[in-house]
Design brief:
- Strands 1-2-3 form a 3-stranded antiparallel sheet, with no helix packed on it.
- Helix 1 runs antiparallel to helix 4 and helix 3 packs antiparallel against helix 4.
- The chain contains 5 helices and 3 strands, in the order αααβββαα.
- It is mainly α.
């Protein structure tokens, strides 16, 4: 139950982050047309993140206990984990390009408005300077565009961490607990040791520690009560021995 709640929360975060970065990327492309490259507007990472969140929500909401013996729960979970694993790398890569573009904006040497709503910025690089043009005013570049880039980079970093958390949680729920095969027992406890009833097949034991034949009990320390017939036979034997001894002495 607890893991299902965690899955639901992480999937909901994936939906929110993916939809937010996708809308923001398309808005920047519309607001600054023909000025940014595809790598700077990471809708190509936001859409898979949104799909991964939707698949994860479907996996958490639907009750798969009614589908026992069906492969659909396995396929849905594999799809959710696989998409989240892909989103880990996509969001990590998509976080780098907006940061790099924001660094370039902060390092522009000069920006001038040339023509109608065209901003030309010069970036001094070796060996030749680079001229970058934006089809918007320079005020929009420094006031809004760089903050949009920072926001997209932060959202992509959060999406990568959330997807990684989802994958690790799914891995831990299936493979995260490794049993050593040992079970410690307190001999001062009131409950009997589990090996006392089955010494030939102890629980949590390795096959090398199991004995093929049970250990025979020691009869020297155990005295069982005798039956009445056995007592009579023993008395008769004692009387016969006494008679034999008397006969020998009399002869």
């Amino acid at each position: 139950m607890r893991s299902r709640v965690c899955y639901s929360a992480l999937s909901l975060l994936q939906v929110l982050l993916g939809s937010g970065v996708t809308v923001l990327a398309f808005y920047i492309q519309y607001a600054v047309p023909e000025s940014l490259k595809i790598r700077d507007t990471p809708y190509w990472a936001g859409i898979p993140l949104l799909v991964a969140g939707l698949v994860g929500l479907y996996f958490c909401i639907v009750e798969f206990e009614a589908w026992q013996g069906n492969t659909r729960p396995f396929v849905v979970k594999c799809a959710a984990v696989g998409l989240s694993g892909v989103c880990v790398f996509l969001c990590a890569v998509a976080c780098i390009f907006p940061v790099a573009h924001t660094i370039d904006i902060f390092h522009y040497d000069s920006c001038n408005n040339t023509g109608a709503s065209i901003c030309s910025c010069v970036l001094e690089e070796e060996p030749d300077p680079t001229v970058i043009g934006y089809h918007v005013g320079c005020e929009l570049v420094f006031d809004q565009l760089r903050w949009f880039m920072i926001t997209m980079a932060a959202v992509m970093a959060a999406g990568s961490l959330v997807s990684l958390w989802f994958v690790l949680l799914a891995w831990r729920s299936r493979y995260g607990r490794f049993h050593s095969g040992l079970k410690f027992y307190s001999y001062s406890a009131q409950t009997p040791h589990p090996w006392t009833h089955h010494p030939s097949n102890p629980p949590y034991g390795s096959p090398y520690c199991q004995t093929t034949e049970p250990i025979p009990p020691d009869d020297t320390h155990s005295q069982q009560p005798l039956h009445s017939d056995q007592k009579l036979n023993n008395e008769r034997d004692d009387e016969e021995e006494l008679q034999l001894v008397e006969n020998k002495q009399g002869s």
